[in-house]
Write a structure and sequence with these properties.
- The structure holds two protein chains of two kinds.
- Chain A is 19% helix and 19% strand.
- Chain A contains seven helices and eleven strands.
- The radius of gyration of chain A is 24 Å and the shape is elongated.
- Chain B is mainly alpha-helical.
- Chain B is 67% helix and 2% strand.
- The chains are: A alpha+beta, B mainly alpha.
- The interface between A and B is large, with 69 and 57 residues.
Chain lengths: 248, 317
């Protein structure tokens, strides 16, 4: 049923640190690798090795030039990498617009999913998502989206430390964190509180579960450590004689 | 937004079909509908034909048309589902009305029931247009659609296109309907007003989201310097359709003249003409209007910008 649950037991989601993300695309790659064999498989690629390659991805990393932000310090601007994926909103219009009941938000943990067997591929849910999180699979004729790796986080065949979304497991800079954002004492909630985590486009009222940690303010230390001045090289003895002969 | 031909055809064709039903229902309620088998049969076939062709065309863009029946299930939350139900429900009074009107001898419907079927059909038809408009009007990421001007424009344009078609049909069968020419003219004026208000609203306002709010840095200047992938993807192709400003202006001019002004002039001018010329003018007015309204609908999709484009370099959406 595409009506939303009144309240969800947990609010599982991601916290993404824009201060430490280096834009390496490891999360993108591991997401694709896991999910093309996971719950929403396959993540179809079209013309993967030719011109105009296209395909379904649940996670994409953008790169921006940011100016007028405390993280720029004295510099006019800075580079910011920005991973974009489903935010598992508390008020996801992508679910309520679905005419078939294929889209749903789980009452137990708040994860937004698509039942591919019921999806008619009308694409309306992708129009209703402000964040571009849903991608249509033209080959399968159904809508696909991030599952928060439900087939990893509850998977008892995996070691306990591996029961996190593929993007979180692989991030080399620990810029991605996974947890229950309804619990104020969870690590992710504490992180959001201490770093001033924010919602994306809060003005639209979707109430995203995922939070983003803005880049930290930069203390301006760039000019304080100049490189030592270069001095002319002098040598004596045999090398001094060679130097003198070659310099003639 | 990507202007899919199937959806443009669906909204314009079914809108006109429902518009004919609204007009017929109104004339029937006032007891002003002439009893004529061929006029009745042709009009009902045209109206229901436009509606049915539109509905079928709207299923062509589905990934799984064979599952379309599932779309009737989520009327509690989904305007698309409500539209499907309203569209199906409208067939019941429309078919009843059509049979009673066209074959009064064989379908012995009491007069009070025919008087009732007309208004019920008209209300259902208006309701269907309303649910179609609400699909767009409820989408918060699209400023061009999430505003109060969308629903009035859909309702008026639906009835307007229906009235102009009915005018042409009534003249073709020499079954003049009282005041249909001035009513069509008034509806064309109302349609142009509704679209004018819509265009001035979308031209003078923008959505509240910016690249800053989209990336969690409100107040900062955020400029896209690299896309996630070198090639365009589904999101960019579906939601990032771009129309050249020059063409948008020209197409709007075409929509205004062909969709409203020229048909109105032709219809009002035709009143002064002999019957033969009148028919030709009425049919031409309908054809010109069709071109203009299809252009208008293409623009409704093509000019609409989605907030996801903010992630791909748009400065506003």
């Amino acid at each position: 049923m595409t009506s939303l649950p009144e309240k969800t037991g947990k609010k599982l989601g991601l916290v993404i640190d824009l201060d430490t993300c280096v834009g390496c695309n490891a999360c993108v790659t591991n997401c694709k690798e896991w999910n093309t064999g996971g719950h929403m498989a396959p993540l179809t690629d079209l013309n993967a090795y030719g011109a105009e390659a296209d395909g379904v991805w649940f996670n994409r990393v953008h790169t921006y030039e940011v100016a007028g932000h405390e993280s720029c310090g004295a510099a006019p601007s800075r580079t910011m990498h920005f991973p974009r994926s489903c935010l598992h909103c508390e008020k996801p219009d992508c679910v309520t617009v679905c005419p078939t009941g294929a889209s749903y938000k789980r009452a137990s943990d708040g994860i937004v999913l698509v039942n591919e067997d019921m999806c008619i591929g009308c694409k309306l849910c992708s129009w209703a998502c402000p964040y571009g999180a849903r991608e249509f699979d033209v080959f399968e004729g159904v809508m696909k989206k991030c599952t928060l790796c439900i087939d990893r986080i509850y998977n008892e065949n995996l070691a306990e430390e591996d029961r996190v979304p593929a993007c979180v497991a692989t991030c080399p800079t620990s810029a991605r964190h996974f947890g229950d954002l309804s619990d104020p004492n969870s690590d992710v909630s504490k992180l959001v509180k201490s770093r001033g985590g924010v919602d994306l486009m809060p003005e639209l009222g979707y109430q995203p579960t995922n939070k983003y940690l803005p880049p930290r303010a930069r203390k301006d230390t760039t000019a304080a450590m100049p490189a030592p001045e270069l001095k002319p090289v002098t040598a004596d003895g045999f090398l001094g004689w060679v130097d003198k002969m070659l310099s003639r | 937004m990507n202007p899919a031909l199937s959806v443009i055809f669906f909204t314009t064709a079914s809108g006109a079909g429902y518009g004919i039903l609204v007009m017929l229902g109104a004339y029937a309620a006032l007891g002003r509908l002439p009893q004529s088998m061929w006029f009745g049969l042709t009009t009902m076939v045209v109206a229901l034909g436009l509606i049915t062709a539109g509905l079928l065309s709207s299923t062509f863009h589905l990934g799984h048309p064979e599952r379309a029946w599932r779309a009737f299930s989520q009327w509690r939350s989904s305007w698309l589902s409500r539209e499907g139900i309203m569209a199906l429900a409208t067939y019941v009074p429309a078919l009843g009305f059509g049979l009673a009107w066209v074959f009064p001898e064989s379908v012995k419907v009491p007069l009070y029931l025919l008087g009732l079927l007309g208004p019920v059909m008209a209300v259902c038809a208006l309701g269907t247009i309303y649910t179609t408009a609400m699909i767009y009007r409820s989408l918060k990421p699209i400023h061009h659609w999430y505003n109060v001007h969308v629903v009035p424009a859909y309702l008026v344009l639906g009835v307007m296109t229906g009235a102009v078609l009915l005018f042409a049909l009534s003249l073709l069968f020499a079954e003049p309907l009282k005041f249909i020419a001035p009513i069509s003219g008034l509806l064309l004026a109302a349609g142009l007003t509704a679209k004018w208000r819509y265009w001035s609203f979308v031209d003078s306002t923008a959505g509240t989201s910016t690249p800053g709010t989209a990336t969690g840095l409100p107040g900062a200047q955020v400029k896209s310097i690299e896309w996630p992938h070198t090639e365009a993807n589904y999101v960019v192709k579906e939601m990032g359709f771009q129309i050249a400003r020059k063409h948008a202006g020209r197409l709007r001019t075409i929509a205004i003249w062909a969709g409203f002004v020229v048909p109105a002039v032709m219809i009002e001018f035709s009143i002064l003409m002999p019957a033969g010329v009148q028919v030709v003018l009425a049919v031409c007015a309908a054809l010109v209007m069709a071109l203009g309204i299809i252009t208008e609908r293409w623009l409704f999709f093509a000019e609409a910008k989605h907030t996801v484009t903010l992630y791909y370099g748009a400065e506003k959406a």
